[in-house]
Amino acid sequence: MAYELTDVQVRVLGALVEKRVTTPDYYPLTLNALVSACNQKSNRDPVVSYDDKTIVRSLDTLRDRKLAIMWHTAGSRVPKYAEEMSGTFELEDDQVAVLCMLMVRGPQTAGELRTRTGRLHDFATTIEVEKTLTALVNREKGALVVKLPRRPGAREGRYMHLLAAEPDPATLEEPPPPVEAARVQLQAEDQRIVTLEAEVCSLREELNALRETFAEFRQQFE
Fold this sequence. Notes:
Elements: H1 7-22, E1 29-30, H2 31-39, H3 52-64, E2 68-71, E3 80-83, H4 85-88, H5 93-105, H6 110-116, H7 126-137, E4 145-147, E5 159-161, H8 181-219
Antiparallel strand pairs: 1-3, 2-3, 4-5
Helix pairs in contact: 1-2, 1-3, 1-5, 5-7, 6-7
């Protein structure tokens, strides 16, 4: 991909796309509104806390790459910002919805995307979402989405966008489930027992070797 965006740039662009569709009356966004959209706690993964300077720096890069623009509207005291990704990539509404949700919430399954894109596009079935994802994966001008290997025990594979540098697969693994403190203690005790048993076996082998050596030594004087 020609567009290897940073995580901040992806969040800024995703927030602009989302608000264009969901709150058209308040779009384009002022800087303050965009900061709030990026940092909101709902419908975001991960939740972040970017300051104004961080957002402005990302906007400048997005504008250079023709993915965002600055608006100066009559009667407005401050500039406003809008996304240009939809036009630059020539995306249909369903593709915009799926890509946007991957940008603001990270890798997801087709089923999760159908549930979470409700405000952006009305997918009747998960199959429709999968068709949209396939179109983004097989896009002639360059894939914008990739399907990740299915994790052990998972029923569905997840998809992720390709607007940023591809992360280390290890970072995509879900953290292990929480374990009770008592279980942690038991596991530690079990490990100590295993270690002690191994040490006892080793000492027995050493003792037997010493006995054999001593027996051979005695035979020399008999």
